[in-house]
Design the sequence.
């Protein structure tokens, strides 16, 4: 049975209630709804704020990170006052300030196969505001198994995508992307940059689809992928079809329970990565005493305008495989990037080609700036 609206709520939501397609009964549906938001970063900020303002009765927030100064260029749910605090708590405080009549439940954890079902079962709609492929495939499969709509959004530099995947009424995410891209082929926002207002556009579209789904109004993005370009200011819609051979929602599904999504996406565990690590101070000491080390910087050229390590050779990751044959196999090679992810991908390429003397600068040039050369900026 629908919850009644208080006088304060009627005033708060009056502009909604005045809409013929919403009305008082529609606002009650919004109040009775529950939405889980995975990620409280660039996309999660506008999604959570607009859903809170709209009066979604219960909002769950899943994130395991803390607020960093570099987040504030786009993650508008956070602020200077909440730097170094848990993102879910920072976001919860902001949402309750925006609308104290709602319930906001924080989950300070990774969203993974072990806890996803237990968290998601309490919510009607799942909104994916993550920035990685394992979470997208996990969210998709979970929603197929649990019969819940999956509100999808993704951003890259100046471009974004939005869709609604609901296997009960149309295709799922795996129908569109049966297999993940090769590891490292799609850089993160931290590596490639992102236009600050882009998450606002895509996140607002995701929030729009959530509310339409709750109210049952308009035409949702089920069976369509909306493509947005901020540079061209264009929207294009691509029709999607259900894949009868889909491994999750097809006629004869092969995947019937949640799997190891990191392994599925080819992501190695942290314990494997650390075997190659060299600490910033150790590298600095060895360079100072003149050890023969080839330093390779796999960042993009524009990143060199921010910070550099002297005598490092720049070979951007996208061009790296074309240059491996000219590296000296007998020389120790230390590879670095901004934070250590791209450099590890490059290291594995060399390792697969037979190179033996390989190290990855732990934490990348940002760790070098913090621990060795404070004259360099962190970005």
Sequence:
């Amino acid at each position: 049975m629908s919850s009644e609206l208080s006088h304060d709520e009627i005033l708060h939501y009056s502009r909604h209630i005045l809409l013929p397609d919403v009305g008082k009964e529609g606002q009650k549906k919004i109040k009775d709804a529950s939405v889980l938001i995975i990620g409280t970063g660039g996309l999660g900020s506008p999604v959570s704020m607009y859903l809170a303002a709209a009066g979604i009765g219960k909002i769950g927030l899943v994130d395991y990170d803390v607020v960093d100064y570099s987040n504030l260029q786009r993650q508008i749910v956070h602020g200077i006052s909440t730097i170094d605090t848990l993102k879910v708590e920072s976001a919860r405080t902001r949402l309750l300030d925006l609308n104290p009549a709602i319930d906001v439940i924080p989950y300070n954890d990774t969203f993974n196969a072990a806890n996803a079902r237990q968290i998601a079962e309490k919510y009607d709609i799942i909104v994916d505001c993550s920035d990685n492929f394992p979470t997208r495939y996990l969210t998709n499969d979970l929603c197929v198994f649990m019969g819940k709509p999956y509100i999808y959004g993704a951003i890259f530099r100046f471009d974004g995508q939005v869709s609604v995947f609901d296997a009960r009424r149309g295709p799922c995410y795996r129908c569109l992307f049966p297999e993940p891209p090769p590891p490292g082929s799609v850089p993160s926002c931290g590596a490639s940059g992102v236009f600050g207002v882009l998450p606002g556009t895509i996140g607002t579209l995701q929030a729009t689809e959530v509310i339409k789904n709750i109210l049952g109004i308009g035409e949702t993005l089920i069976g369509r992928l909306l493509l947005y370009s901020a540079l061209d200011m264009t929207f294009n819609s691509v029709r999607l079809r259900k894949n009868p051979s889909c491994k999750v929602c097809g006629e004869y599904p092969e995947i019937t329970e949640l799997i190891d999504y990191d392994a599925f996406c080819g992501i190695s565990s942290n314990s494997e990565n650390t075997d190659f690590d060299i600490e910033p101070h150790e590298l600095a000491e060895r360079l100072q005493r003149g050890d023969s080390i080839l330093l390779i910087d796999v960042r993009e050229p524009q990143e060199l305008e921010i910070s550099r390590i002297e005598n490092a050779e720049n070979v951007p990751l996208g061009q790296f495989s074309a240059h491996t044959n000219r590296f000296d196999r007998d020389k120790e090679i230390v590879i670095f990037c901004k934070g250590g992810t791209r450099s590890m991908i490059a290291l594995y390429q060399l390792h697969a080609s037979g190179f033996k003397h390989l190290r990855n600068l732990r934490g990348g040039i940002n760790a070098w700036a913090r621990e060795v050369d404070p004259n360099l900026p962190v970005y």
In short: Residues 270-371 form a domain with the Oxidized Rhodanese; domain 1 fold (CATH 3.40.250.10). Residues 17 and 27 are 7 Å apart (CA to CA).
